[in-house]
Amino acid sequence: MQYSEIEEKVLIRDVKEKISWSIWVRYVVVALASFLLYLSFFDNSYLQLSLGLIAFVFSYNALAHIFFWLKKRASLVFLLSFRNFLLVLDVLAVTILIYITGVTESPYWFLYLVLIIISGFGIYTPSSVTVFIIAFFSTVFYLGMLWLVYLGIIPVYAPGFHLSQQQLFTLIFNKAVFTTVSFFLFATTIYYFSQLLHQHRDELSHKNSLFLAAVVELKDLNKMKDEFISTASHELRTPLAILRENLSLIEDGVVGEVNTKQSELLVSARANLDRLAEILNNLLDISKLDAHSLQLKKAKTDLSELARSAVEFLQPKASAKNIALDEICPKQVWVWVDPNQIFRVFVNLIDNAIKYIPENSKITVGIESGKNEVSVYVKDNGPGISDQDVLKVFQRFVRLEKDPALTPPKGFGLGLSICQGIVEVHGGKLCVESKLGQGTKFIFTIPKADLND
């Protein structure tokens, strides 16, 4: 099976981690076995064999540890072969343990199955076939031990092991059949599930690749959209400026006398040109905010003065609807901001309130100075916003439904989104609090300026 360079590096790291883990587990097993042997009482035969087994496991594990530490760089094939070799030695150690503890009477037969399971830990690599290798050597070593016992080549260390040759043959035959079937059935089951997981991993990897490709495509499309909006906005500004200039010439009577009807049409045309210019500016600002390219000209600014200027600027519009427009601000609150952009936020929030509340209402603009930041709010006593619509307030191109008795406000639903972007690039946050029938309160925060700057 061919792997990409990245996949092979991941697999090599995975196998190395498993080899390192197995080496330290063997050290723990050797230490635990030594402690238990110290607490136990065996005759000389058991003691010598047990010590020999512990020494055998410690020796090959220490050599493997040294070799693994010295060989820093190794191929995937080498690492898998090295891991399989250590597992085969583990199978041999388990076989010796079973022989010491009574052969067919040993309670440690299950350790073969444990090793088969451990060999299946590499379920995401070609080492999944290792389960059959370990099953094969487990069968060979176990049956070989039984055969040597039957032939009398090795003595049996089991107090209750007194069987005739026929009984021993029957026992060994049954064990051989049971062991072979059990080991390979167990190995096949683990291999099946490892392949199933491997298949699911490949499917997940494929879907992840498709997802990443879609994300890249969406980013490219979004970039193209931003570039188009930016280019279109710039290109349309020139003809708009020319149209404005031509309208001014006509209004001033440069090209001839203008009658009352023509004057009304010119006023309407200028209003629509101004609206179109505002839309283009908003689209351009949205594009800059998305691209993180909005250039701020920061300066130490009195936020209270900005608030008062915004209130004064919109006072005529508020008065036209008989709306009380008040400000509650400290004498001076210094912040490090782009004054033009923050003034724009003030104007947009106050203007929105004027548009969306009925006549004879009230709007309050306030500033509260904290230790590290300044909190600004624009509060009205209008109809409020429903919980469902509050979630949509800062969404682009979303127009919230208002009181049918009020004149529908003009716009494309970009103002609040732009305000949010402006506040965030200043390191602050913009949020809204509102309940139906209880008015609306927009709040934004700005970090305070260091007076020593």
From TrEMBL:
Cellular compartment(s): Cell membrane
Recorded GO MF terms: ATP binding; phosphorelay sensor kinase activity
Give the domain of life.
Answer: Bacteria
Q: What is its EC number?
A: 2.7.13.3
* Gene Ontology CC: plasma membrane
Q: Where is the Histidine kinase domain positioned along the sequence?
A: 231-450
Q: Which reaction does it catalyse?
A: ATP + protein L-histidine = ADP + protein N-phospho-L-histidine
Sorted keywords for this record are: ATP-binding, Cell membrane, Kinase, Membrane, Nucleotide-binding, Phosphoprotein, Transferase, Transmembrane, Transmembrane helix, Two-component regulatory system
Q: Which residues cross the membrane?
A: 21-41, 47-70, 77-100, 106-124, 131-157, 169-193
Q: How is this protein named in the record? A: histidine kinase
Which organism is this protein's natural source? candidate division WOR-1 bacterium RIFOXYC2_FULL_41_25
Output the lineage of the source organism: Bacteria, Bacillati, Saganbacteria
